[in-house]
Description:
This protein is of the alpha/beta class. It is 38% helix and 15% strand.
Amino acid sequence: MTDTTSRTPLILDVDTGIDDSLALLYAAGSPDAEIAAVTCVSGNVAARQVGINTRAILELAGRSDVEVSLGREIPLVRGLETTEETHGPQGLGHAELPPPGRDLSDRHAVDLILEEARRRPGEITLITLGPLTNLAISLLREPGLPRLFKSYTLMGGAFGVPGNSTQTNEWNIHCDPDAAKIVFRAWADAREADPTIPRPLALGLDVTEQARILPDDVVRLARRAGSTPDDSIALARGEDPMLATRSVASNPIVRYVADALRYYMEFHLRYDGFYGAFIHDALAVAAALDRSLVTTEAWYVDVETRGELTSGMTVADRRRLTGKPPNLYVAVTADVPAFLDRLVERIGGLAADHSNVPR
Length: 359
């Protein structure tokens, strides 16, 4: 039995599309993690669909006990953007899951974040995997929030590479740059008052686009789960989409992973020239639990909100030209083979332990 005292309590703020779902499964399969709660924000799909997807994934993982809370449904200032072309009409690719059996929490996501941080000061690791809308509102209500978390990790930004939404913008920051600006400056202000507050760890496209999952990795995961057959996702290898088929794997989690990722892989084949998928959010969860998976640089980072061509850009002061002290640790390299091995072990192990969850 896992020693619960050694587990890191997590609040995950998500916009559950395909890569968020893998992050949730990774957390659920991690013996060193306690999923304290999950909060939902619009991003990959609209927030209410995020709430449905999140609860369905947690139920697939045997974690219907986790509180799931709906947050703000639109960005702070800008209009809502979603990206069903990347994640599928419902956000989970080709996968289909039963409607969740548990209702959303009565607590708003912002209330949940604030109440849990106050109830367990210095214990909780916050991980944001979508736009930073919920966290920004939480900080506006409680500027002292950074000192209440044990640590904070975000998937967001493009610090030395092109964006994936515009020439300069990573999607999560692009959707609500005003929120990201509030969050980054809040940690800068908090650390100015109290330098012992840990800097957030930011995983941008610089490292998350190194984390490609390929069909062979999904086959490895299926074999770890003891699932047969285990290679439906690899049938076409991206060469002929007409050969693709829904997974008939014996394990429900493996079926989900194969069907969800096949959509993502088809997307990346069309737009990025490889049959595989970037799994940004799972890497962020893995690094939050084990910092040795990434190397970092400490930089002052702000967000452009007014530029004609660059609004939403994460601007890192790499040469210390501003004279401002660093407010983020930015991941610059990642041990991708170790991460993928861990993902196969943790999600594959979770699948092996939950082989009878209904599809």
